[in-house]
Amino acid sequence: MDILDSTLLSFSDSYEAARKNFIDASLAHRLNMAKYENLKRGPMGEYLACDTTWAGPSDAKRVLVMISATHGVEGFCGSGCQVDWLRSERPLSLPEGTAALLIHAINPHGFAWQRRVTEEGCDLNRNFLDFSQPLPANAGHDELANSFVPASLDPATLAAAEEHLKAYRATHGERAFQSARKAGQYRHPSSMFFGGFEPSWARQTLETIVTDYALSERELVAVIDFHTGLGPFGYGEPISGHLPGTPGFEWVTRVYGQSVGVPELGTSASIPLHGTARDLWDRLLDTRYAYVALEYGTYSQERSRLALREDHWLHNQGDVDWQAPETQRIKAQLKHHYYPACDDWKEMVLWRSRQLLRQATEALGST
After folding, report:
1. What is the per-residue pLDDT across 170-188, written as a single tens digit (0 to 9) for each?
2. Beta strand pairing status for 220-233 and 62-67?
3. Alpha-carbon distance 243 to 241, whole Å?
């Protein structure tokens, strides 16, 4: 499909429409599908599920995995990339011995409610720790939690919160501030970047999918997990999910080239994080996987911080009236930050998605 046509046809404006678009594109190729029902409902009572599509031989030794909506609202982008791949006849041109698994809306609750978090309030990409072990501390977040998400949005409270954050930045530096805010925290469920007290539904569902599709029995699994919100507008950075010196790191840097970002080396828009999907893939696949988060830039981190503050504040108040003007304002603000939806951004997104998916497919076919 022409990329400009795809910018019009592949992206959707709601979780429900994205799910239908994904299912229709999968069934057009008569691909095998499965669904993993989430017992919660969307803001208008919508049915929620994570849907999967398999293309290629069931006994394939090499599998390309595409994941959307790890961070809920970011699924508008990831779903569009998955639908573009399906509608561009890619399922018909997989190399011999290679299959593709598309995991659509692993966090359907966050997608439908236009949140980054799951129904448990968890940032899924901080939720993959072993909760039987001591959890990472984040003293900076402990100090700043009530300023990241104040109890009120009145001007005086917000002004005091901003002064507190400004003072911390001046004392500790910008990197320490961003680590306090985003690295992951496990004590403040009402604040942002909360990793949870136990495995979330979305995490357990991903583990079930890995088992159902026998991914741990394959020779190599290449994972591309679609994200948005970090980096220059429209640019897609493949962020390595591996530590330097590991087989996965060697694979992703060889296949995707010099644009691969490595948080641990300071070469990424992302900082090192706690509880990422690396913990799951390491545990289940050992060295037989190669993972990148394909991170698309949107707007500034200050803009995201303020949008997330208001969204967390809103849900901290109790049941959310979806139709209320304040709710609609807050949701539109957050959605726009993580999904700009303008034509130039969508074209850049699809171009980069097609490039990385082609690189991964060719590498899997030559393995």
Report:
1. 999 999 999 999 999 999 9
2. parallel
3. 7
Backbone angles phi, psi at 128, to 5 degrees: -95, 20
- Phi (first) and psi of residue 34, to 5 degrees: -145, 160
Global pTM reads: 0.98
Cα–Cα distance between 103 and 68 in angstroms, integer?
A: 6
CB atoms within 10 A of CB 245: 7
DSSP state of 73: G
Residues 6+ apart with CB under 8 A from 290: 220, 221, 222, 223, 242, 248, 251, 252, 255
In this structure, is the dihedral angle defined by the CA atoms of residues 53, 86, 279 and 334, taken in order, positive or negative? negative
CB-CB contact of 76 with 11 (8 Å)? yes
Domain positions in the chain are 3-131+195-302+335-365
Instruction: Kindly indicate the confidence band of residue 90, based on its pLDDT and cuts at 50, 70 and 90.
Output: confident
- Whole-number CA gyration radius for the chain: 20
CA 6 from chain centre, in angstroms, equals: 21
Whole-angstrom Cα distance, residue 10 to residue 82?
A: 8
- The CA–CA distances, whole Å, from 361 to 90, 144, 217, 239, 357 equal 10, 44, 19, 18, 6
Backbone angles phi, psi at 151, to 5 degrees: -75, -20
d(CA 367, CA 360): 11
C-alpha–C-alpha distance, residues 111 and 119, integer Å: 10
CATH number (3.10.20.30, 3.30.450.40, 1.25.40.10, 3.40.630.10) of 3-131+195-302+335-365 reads: 3.40.630.10
